[in-house]
Design a protein that fits this description.
The chain has 278 residues and is α/β, with parallel strands linked by helices. Helix content is 31%, strand content 21%. A ten-stranded mixed sheet has the order 1-9-10-8-2-7-3-4-5-6, sandwiched between helices.
């Protein structure tokens, strides 16, 4: 088993959960969320690169083999009612499951126990966002069951093609899907905690719509550099977040070997939207 994360900083009063002892030891304390919540998780290089389009599964390369990163990813998945990904993320992980135990097998039993304590179903529902329905029906995720959030045209394209275990939800005529509609569809399915593991373009859309409550960012010790236009992606692509800007409040800092784990509270998010609606 890996060495626990070292807590360098954490603000007081954060939500906590009765974690299984193994998870509390590895994380260096407790963790919890105020619901509803949409939180995102990324790993980046020192110079802010989260994806390299020319490299398959570049996030694994960027993570630099970190056990700590894999553990935090598994822990965040274990909390989630739903994990939201995009068509690009799906295509780049042809065997991906987005399940907690797959990314960090040593904590499989502890992740399952956490979900029982939280009253979650056995596994999070994986939601795939694709405006055009451009997904490979043979991807094993669909055989095990997933929900596809798409347009009318995307639904027509996928009808009768996806395995019966998966569900298609139509979000209207527009093939450029309003992220608000996607999130509302997941909330309507009873998902109070949504983890975004989508790519930087979908993440940028969510941030620009003020839908992200918290950002978990692992900073790896690598530098990626730049090979020119579109050769490297940051965590909010094609989204102009200035001005007035999206500002994060630092909630915690942890360390594992040469990796740093940051947690930010972001302005906006589902909680503030709910407060405004109320």
């Amino acid at each position: 088993m890996m060495e626990p994360l070292e807590v360098l900083f954490e603000v007081g009063g954060l939500p906590t959960t009765d974690l299984p002892d193994e998870l509390a030891e590895l994380y260096g304390g407790s963790i919890g969320f105020r619901e509803p919540a949409l939180y995102s998780n990324f790993v980046s290089t020192i110079d802010g690169v989260v994806a390299i389009p020319s490299v398959p599964r570049s996030n694994a390369l960027i993570a630099d083999g970190s056990d700590g990163d894999r553990f935090v990813m598994g822990l965040l998945r274990a909390f989630a009612d739903a994990v939201l990904i995009g068509a690009g993320t799906l295509a780049s992980s042809p065997k991906g499951t987005w399940l907690p135990e797959k990314v960090f097998p040593p904590a499989k039993d502890a992740f399952a126990e956490l979900r029982r304590r939280l009253g979650r179903r056995e596994r999070p529902e994986i939601a795939v966002l694709t405006g055009h329905g451009s997904v490979a029906p043979e991807h094993p995720l669909f055989a095990s069951g997933a929900v596809v959030l798409t347009s009318d045209a995307g639904a027509t394209r996928l009808e009768g093609v996806l395995p019966e275990a998966s569900t298609i939800l139509t979000l209207g005529e527009e093939t450029v899907i309003d992220p608000q509609l996607a999130v509302e569809a997941l909330l309507e399915r009873g998902h109070g905690t949504i983890l975004c593991e989508a790519g930087p373009h979908t993440h940028g859309d969510l941030l620009a719509s003020a839908l992200v409550d918290e950002l978990f960012l692992t900073v790896s010790p690598l530098l990626a550099g730049d090979r020119g236009h579109m050769s490297r992606y940051g965590l909010a692509e094609a989204a102009d977040l200035m001005l007035p800007g999206v500002r994060g409040q630092l909630l915690s800092v942890r360390r594992h070997e040469d990796h740093v784990f940051l947690r930010y509270d972001l302005a906006g998010g589902l909680g503030s939207n709910a407060d405004a609606a109320g």
